[in-house]
Each structure stands twice: as C-alpha cells, then as structure tokens.
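ok so I'm stuck.
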Amino acid sequence: MAQHDNPFRPGAGQKPLYLAGRDSEQIKFGKLLDQKPVLRNLIITGLRGVGKTVLLDNLKPLAQKSKWLWTGNDLSESVSLSEERIATRVVADLSQLLTPIIVHHSETLAFGFSDEIKKSEKPISFDDLWNVYQSTPGLTSDKLKQVLFTAQKLLRGTSVKGIVFAYDEAQNLSDHAKDGEYPLSVLLDVFSSLQKNHDEIPILLVLTGLPTLFPRLNEARTYTERMFEVMQLERLSIDACRLAITKPIEIAKSPLTFGDNVVNAVTQMSGGYPYFIQYICREVFDAWISRIDAGESPSVDRESIITKLDMDFFAPRWERTTVRQQEFMQVISCLGNSDEEFTAQEVATESGEILVKKFSPSHAIQMLQALSDKGLIYRSKYGKYCFAVPLMADFIRRQQHKLASASPA
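replied:
not stuck anymore, here's the structure
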C-alpha cells in the first residue's frame, strides 16, 4: 500500500482491512458447520451499517477451510416475486458451484462401420440441472428438492463435507398469497425437508438481512424458530471500536496515526457502528493528508464530517418520505427512548404535546407500517418498534436544530 493510501473502506459491504469485534460470531458459525446432522441454520440480522455483509464474507473462508462448498447471492425484490424465480436463483448458484468439480461422462458409437466407442467429458451446467428441475413432476418445491438431491448424489465420494447456501438482503423475501406465489415458503420447505435426510452430505442455509427478516420467516412457517439460530449483530464495544480504528492504519503501515483523542472522538461520533467508523476515519484520514500536504497541522473538523455523513447516508433515506411522515419521525426523535424501542401509543401521546395536528393511535400504527415498508422502521416485537437506520434519531434532531437556528427571532 502506498505511503498515504487511505486504509478505511466505508462502501456498502466493503471488507475492512481488519474485522473487529466479531470473533464470537465466527466461533458460533464454526459450531454450526460441525452439526451432524444439521438441525439449525443461521440468520444474521441487525441494523444497516452494523456489518452483516462484511461478517458474511468472512464466514465464507471459514466454511471453505472446513471443506464446505459456499454459494449464494444478494436477494433482490424481483427474485421474490415468484416461486420459479427463487428456484432459478438457487439452481443458478448451485450450477456455478458444481461446474468446476463435477464432470459428465458419456459414451457414443463413432460414425461409420467402426465399433469404436467415443468417450467424452463435459462439466455439469445450469442446463443439466434445469433439465432435472423441469422433468420432475409436482410442485416447485418438489422440483427444487430433486435438483438439490441430485447435487448431493453427485458429490458422493468427494472430499466435500457440505454445501452452504448464503443469501444476503434476505429481508426482501416474502410470500404473495394474493398472486398464489409462495417463494419464501418454498425455500424454507425445501431446506427443511432435505436436512431430514441424514444419509447425504449436509446443506446449511445462511440468511442475512434487516431485523424484519426473522418475523417475516416466522409468519411464513412457524417452525422457523426451531430451524434457525439467530445472530443479532449489535454495535461494537469500546475496545472493539478502538481496534477497528487503529488496526487498519497499523496493517497499512501508514506513517499517519490517530492519537487517543481522535480515537475517542471517532468512537463517540460513530455510535459504535462499523460503517460509520470506516466512513468517519476515511474522512479524517483524507483531511489529515490534505492538511499535511499544505504544511498545516492535522485536526478533526467534527462538524463538516457529520454534515457530509448526513448528506451521504441519512438525507437520501429522509427525502424518500412525505412531509407528514417526516413530522411523525420528528415526534419519535423527541421520545426519551427514541434510540431504543417505542410504541405507537407513545408516539401518539407525544405528538399531542408538540404538534398542532396530532396523530391518533390508529394513525400512528398506519404511519409505522408505511415507514416499515420504506425500510426506516421495523417491529422489534409485538407492539414495539425501532428505527431500522442507526443514529437516525440524532440526524432528525440535527435537522430540527438547523430549522430552529434558521428561524427569525
């Protein structure tokens, strides 16, 4: 790495130079790989910016080291529109996994009068597996089970210990009863059924998504409580924050280092969320480089970094909402428990204190559902809600402060 290359990577799902504070989660995943038979799959959930995708990427080499194959993808909303689309996604991922290691052998008679037999080899392809899918009678789940069972048979006698199917953004999965399409239920039914066959190599399902994921799975199939181990990622501890800030600089062998005052400031500003740590550290590092190049002393411009973070991360989400929805979230930000769980009744009561046009409890529930659909709120448990975006309440309070400051006396 060049002398002044920035060692921090705040992009969505970007792997940091050092993964801090997730050792226990990796140990738990290792225990899931040791299951004989597989009784529990894995859900990784948490707010945006908490490092779900980064952790998922770090689990892949652990699985491969244990001789498990790993395949998967991001689940877009379009994949969840129908049963056949989710089946196509799984078959496509499986074919990419098997193509390098499974070869078809075939024998045919040569042309002419010779009895010579021609032997040929061809890597297994998506078309091969899709032919299995299409030729299997029954429902989509029956067809997909047969494809995965075929893959299990093909891997007999190899050194492969199992297959991990890992899917990110899984909160996009849902059933559509009005259209007669149940892609989420199909996925759960297929893996639950195959995991009961203890004679074949095991298959493990890993799903990563926002906190709305597990309740949605439970609504589709109540047995998911027994089918999954839920790994709830929280913000990093102070010690883990320190490592997330200092280790990348150390690994990059950078001549620039952050003192304790900077480390403490970044920890406080980030709230312990890995994405914000990477974002703020990158801004600080770039600012230091420009100041040093200009012959100035390095310093942290806290206000400009927060303003830039607001514009890059929070504002695009805020601007997707209506004025009335923004008023509703402003009410939430005024609650003493705005960073934790709150109820529709609490928001309705608070709105009567600060708004001319207050929200009724029933209207508050409707607003919470609408904001949930936009990925800004999630229901943490029955009757309880939380912001789905970390530090969102702080951002909203800053907007209120700016409006108050701009108002004439």
